[in-house]
Amino acid sequence: MKPDYPVVETDVVVIGGGSAGAMAGIRARHVGPNQKVIVLEKGHAKYSGCIARGMDALNIVSIPGVSTPELYVESNSIACDGIMDEPVNYRMAERSYDVMKRLIDWDVCFPVDEDGNYDILQIHPKGKFCVTMKEPELKTILYKRMVESGVEIFNRTMAAEILIEDGRVSGVITLNVRTGEMMVIRSKTVILTAGGTARFGLPANGNMYGVYDFPGNTGDGYMLAYKAGAELSGFEHTLYYYITKDINAPLLYITMTRGAYLLNAFGERRDKDRPSVKSMCSEDFFNHSGPMRIKMDHLPEDKIREIEELLFTTERPVTERFHAGRDNDFRTGEIELWPTELYLCGGHGMTGVRINEKGETNIPGLYAAGDTSLCAKGHLSGAFVYGEICAENAVQYAQGINQAGQDDAGLDRFLNTRRSRMDQAANPIPIEEFEFKVRRIITDYLRPPKNAYKLKRLLWWTDRFRSELNSMVSVRDEHDLFKTYEVENIIECANLSAVASLERTESRWLPFHYRSDFPEKDDENWLKHIVLSQGHEPGQVKIEHRDILRMQTKGA
Ligand SMILES: Cc1cc2nc3c(=O)[nH]c(=O)nc-3n(C[C@H](O)[C@H](O)[C@H](O)COP(=O)(O)OP(=O)(O)OC[C@H]3O[C@@H](n4cnc5c(N)ncnc54)[C@H](O)[C@@H]3O)c2cc1C
To answer: Is-contact 66 128, C-beta < 8 A?
Structure first.
């Protein structure tokens, strides 16, 4: 019988048209001009993803003569408290300057002084890697390149399931987020670039979409990979940021590298020792000395203007209206900072699908890059470099094989769930209210300080949420339908995060994994990864411990 949904064939399908996805699409068409490349984007690829949340620097570039990839690996390992695989991060740093040069060729602006030197800041424990970028049009530049390169872009299209046949990738099932229309894409390879889990904890302002990271990122990348059999790591690294109160917008490095003061609640200056978001979170968390504030009334007018220009154009333009609405002039007032909601992320954090230096996961034909993948704290540089690396390897893999068979079991499972969800119109709870509750409970039980009692309570709740999603939540239309898939992923991410947090019986990355019942760091037992994958029984999570991967030393 002919299916009542379109079936499309391709060589490479990229899930997520953000930083990593755009770069992957462009690169795939460049190295494989005869291959068909599709990019799926839940929003619209012209504006979607983290870039639209504010980007003022390419955080990791190893510029010859300034720094080396070796120094980056050493420095980032300190930043990651030792939980970092060296080869993956080395490869990123090694290719970072090439990516920056490519961006310059595309007219992305990296300002230089009168001697032609880039503005390079030190934000890592050792070495200078952070290159100032002043490019409000970054995302539209990438989008235009993607279109011109011949990538086929499906906007408003959410990848809902990866199909696997004979142990390798065979395609993706998608849903249109507006019409609910389903599509099957048969593909030899899948590159996962769907970001992290931004909609996870609840922001203090109570606004469900007012999160720090891009709100379309609901952990889909992690869960698509997990359900396909891939290995995940770092789910106990429950990250939050310390940023402008109520709007959750960035400003830290822009202001502090230009002479702003950082004050704690007692008026003591805290800007002297190159404070990081992590150290500010710790100061607030352990010393109870928050909220911190940024103060700039001592700065000359030209510096204030420089900061305003960056903050109100390159970063998030809406911050101008926000500060104006609060009568906040940087020449006289202060900017109050506050902790954001919890979120999971590979680029700022350490949560992701495990990949090797080729961007490969443990599933043949499945690749991952950007915040979905584990190139710890790789930021935008990690997204761009691994977007390219995944594309190169996916194209090569696709060249040598035929399309896999169709995963009929996976397709049937999906159709059954979709059908039964569409029958949930009479259920009493709107999906938005349900999401609010899920994220409130995540905040209650997963936000540090963590302990075994709280984490087990969260596991009890995730179990209950799973069944309530089907028995209590109302699905009024196709828009509600796609949200059920998002919220399901948020719940499953919470479950994995509680499992990993329970397993790591120590405290690390303070305050992000602070266990009040195990308050000390324990390198002897815990200088290793906690790796999660699907167990054999339904709902069972397989937990493994893995060593940190080191660079091969010469002659070894
Ligand atoms: C506020 C903020 C400021 C930052 N500033 C800097 C900086 O100055 N310098 C720096 O180096 N790094 C910075 N970073 C980090 C950097 O931006 C990210 O690490 C990087 O952009 C991540 O790229 P990505 O492609 O993984 O995710 P994104 O760019 O967020 O893209 C993910 C895309 O996937 C789509 N998607 C999600 N689920 C699905 C699905 N199921 N189907 C289809 N599409 C889907 C989303 O809509 C989104 O467009 C910042 C991050 C934030 C949030």
So the answer is: yes
